[in-house]
Amino acid sequence: MHSPTFSMSSTPLEPEVLKKELLDSHAGALATFEGWVRNHNEGQPVDQLEYSSYPQLAEKEGQRIVAEALERFEIDAAIAQHRVGLLPIGGIAVWVGVSAAHRGAAFDACRYIIEEIKSRVPIWKKEYYSTGVTDWVNCHQET
Amino acid sequence: MHSPTFSMSSTPLEPEVLKKELLDSHAGALATFEGWVRNHNEGQPVDQLEYSSYPQLAEKEGQRIVAEALERFEIDAAIAQHRVGLLPIGGIAVWVGVSAAHRGAAFDACRYIIEEIKSRVPIWKKEYYSTGVTDWVNCHQET
Amino acid sequence: MQLTITYFALLRDQRGLDTETIDSPAATPAELYTQLAEQHSFTLPSSALKVAVNDDFAHWTTPLKDGDTIVFIPPVAGG
Amino acid sequence: MQLTITYFALLRDQRGLDTETIDSPAATPAELYTQLAEQHSFTLPSSALKVAVNDDFAHWTTPLKDGDTIVFIPPVAGG
Fold first, then answer.
1. Residues of D37-70 as b/e, b for ≥16 C-beta within 10 angstroms?
2. Cα(A40)–Cα(A89) distance, rounded to whole angstroms?
3. How are beta strands B92-100 and C19-23 bridged, if at all?
4. Per the structure, how many domains does chain A have?
5. Is residue B100 part of a domain?
6. Domain spans of chain D?
7. Among A64, A134, B32, B118, which residue's beta carbon has the most beta carbons within 10 A?
């Protein structure tokens, strides 16, 4: 069993490099998830996107999530990485990979990790719309 | 929506190339599955593995599966490719990738495709054990 | 009736060839498999197999026609 | 009591700075946020936030100590 790995990166994510770290002759199944910057959100055209994080707590919480996945599911290894900084359309915002002897556990753990990252890790997303307006996603104000 | 794509390949699979075909500025989520040749099966050390197929029917049935996934799930595109021939330990036997606006559909469709491939597509696996013995997986004889 | 049978995987090993065209009175794939299994000592029961006629899945009771190509499909193991 | 507050995302924009150290009588993060929200017209209700003290998640009622670093965490949106 590998050590839990979650990290933030300010440079483009490299799925092939991350995947190699999971390659293990024991494993038979690899499930991965990639989140890409979309060109729209709730109907508004998006030009680019900026992720920022609370780095000390983000890495800590991310590593807890990967450790939980290793404990809950019959998997060999898991890696997750989240991008921060300014991303263009089509850029990779997050990558999660899980290797396991059997595919069910690989899928379940991969999904668990991405769901928990999205709900628990202190990372924020600022969208830059084609109109010139920007918005912090999920922080809509009443005013 | 892209056309359903399933193919057999007698040369090593290239996930990065397949993934590029799914890249679409609309999509926000990519779920992938890779099956690798394991170094053991049911406790027996495996040296290498040979996949063979009934090509005419395998491609037809695989394409039906991908078409079903495109119909059942809210996804943008799906690609699946299965290797035939002699594979070393760690070689990629199968690759499935699904892109979608939302991650739930991407995961569900990816899992659907790999499950259906495994149960319906006429592909056979011959294992070469370290003992020199070979065996057609799932064809155990009573004698 | 002329029927072509193509063999894959374990059945190919047990038959010792890839494909053959035979003259058979078998009216259905079920009858044909019974005949071949007896002749060549195939170990897989028909309940473990699927059948394809002319490169698509078919029923065991589908009537066979002269010139049909039949494949008996051993348990699959892709992925 | 000296408390350091670090701001992220929308709260950073609304406060107009990254971090500040203030002298506050607030005994808990809940009291501190009420004070700051009033002072700086923060729009997010505390019910939408989580709170961290010294770089780990904490309760709104955790007693604050001199020198603590507090972060109010706006709704996250990773992935």
1. beeeebebebeebbbbbeeebbeeebebeeebeb
2. 9
3. unpaired
4. 1
5. yes
6. 2-73
7. B32
Mapping DSSP to helix (H, G, I), strand (E, B) and coil, where does residue B38 land?
Answer: coil
Q: How many CB atoms lie within 10 A of CB A130?
A: 11
Distance of alpha carbon B83 from alpha carbon B8, whole angstroms:
6
Cβ neighbours, 10 Å, residue A131:
9
Whether D78 and A125 lie within 8 Å, measured CB to CB:
yes
Q: How many CB atoms lie within 10 A of CB A63?
A: 17
Determine the structural domain holding residue B76 and report its residue range: 5-136
Q: What is the ipTM of this complex?
A: 0.91
B28 CB-contact burial (10 Å; exposed 0-12 / middle 13-18 / buried 19+): buried
DSSP state of C46: G
Rg (CA), chain A: 16
Residue matched to tokens 């991008």: A83
Q: Do C43 and B54 touch (CB under 8 A)?
A: no
Domain CATH number, residue B35: 3.90.1170.40
Using CB atoms, which residue from B26, B27, B111 is nearest to A107? B111
Is residue D37 within 8 A of residue D19, CB to CB? The reply is no
Closest residue to B33, CB basis, from A36, A90, A103: A103
Q: What count of other Cβ atoms lies within 10 Å of the Cβ of residue A32?
A: 25
Q: Round to whole Å and give the CA distance between C4 and C10.
A: 18
Interface contacts (B, C; CB < 8 Å): 78
pTM: predicted TM-score of the whole model, two decimal places: 0.92
* Alpha-carbon gap, residue B40 to C76, rounded angstroms: 19
Instruction: List the pLDDT tens digit at each of the 143 positions of chain B.
Output: 444 589 999 899 999 889 988 887 778 999 999 999 988 887 888 889 999 999 999 999 999 999 999 999 999 999 999 999 999 998 999 999 999 999 999 999 999 999 999 999 999 999 999 888 899 998 875 43
Interatomic CA distance for residues A28 and A46, integer angstroms: 39
Residues contacting A9, CB < 8 A, separation 6+: A81, A82, A83, A84
Q: What is the CA radius of gyration of chain B?
A: 16
Three-class secondary structure of residue B69 per DSSP: helix
Span C2-73: which CATH code? Answer: 3.10.20.30
